Amino acid sequence: MEITIIGTAKGYIGLVGGPGGLRAVTHFSPSPGACLAEAELEVGCRPTETDRFRAWEGALRRYAVGEPVEFDLNDSLDPSVGTGFERAVWAQLQKIPWGRVVSYAQMAAALGRPAAVRAVGRAVGRNPWAIIVPCHRVVGGDGRLVGYGGGLGLKAALLELEGHEVDRRQLRLRCCRPGRRQP
């Protein structure tokens, strides 16, 4: 396994890959060492630092300062990661545009499995590609921020970065409800 660590205005982010492609992306971290530690937990070994994913640097830096970025994954995600259902959920996550949020129920309905809300929630929670596969854009049906591997504070910060107003005490969107663009 190898990792490219990129410094941004929001902190350091690590892109971890193996022979099949990108296997994981760390959350924004305060240091390169924290990126390495998170990557090791995610993939089960300590990756070697390389420049393999340096081409992502510009897009991640733009994202970290609040510029709308749609990541061009161009078949770079390792297809061996996750179950078939998880991969379907992750593909659906990639369709959520910048500045928009959806609910877990809306995700389940979009997948043709409206009763599978909890299973969708578990799959969203297992998304290994933080930021670039935007699981932070999935919220509760009432706009509550629920679940995020990097913590709800980071989820709130990412949503704010994308233009949403978040009530930090109630951990709830102020500006809009799932499926609607903020005013």
Give an overview in words:
The protein is of the alpha/beta class. It has 2 domains: 2-64; 84-173, Orthogonal Bundle (Arc Repressor Mutant, subunit A), CATH 1.10.10.10. The chain has helices at residues 32-43, 57-64, 84-93, 104-110, 117-125, 152-161; strands at residues 2-8, 11-18, 21-25, 48-49, 102-103, 138-139, 166-167, 172-173. The strands form 3 sheets. Strands 3-2-1-4 form a 4-stranded mixed beta sheet. The chain has a two-stranded parallel ribbon with strand order 5-6. A two-stranded antiparallel sheet has the order 7-8. A hairpin with a 2-residue loop joins β1 and β2 (11-18). α4 (104-110) packs across α5. The chain is globular, with a radius of gyration of 16 Å.
Task: Write a compact overview of the structure shown.
The protein has two domains: 2-64; 84-173, Arc Repressor Mutant, subunit A (Orthogonal Bundle), CATH 1.10.10.10.
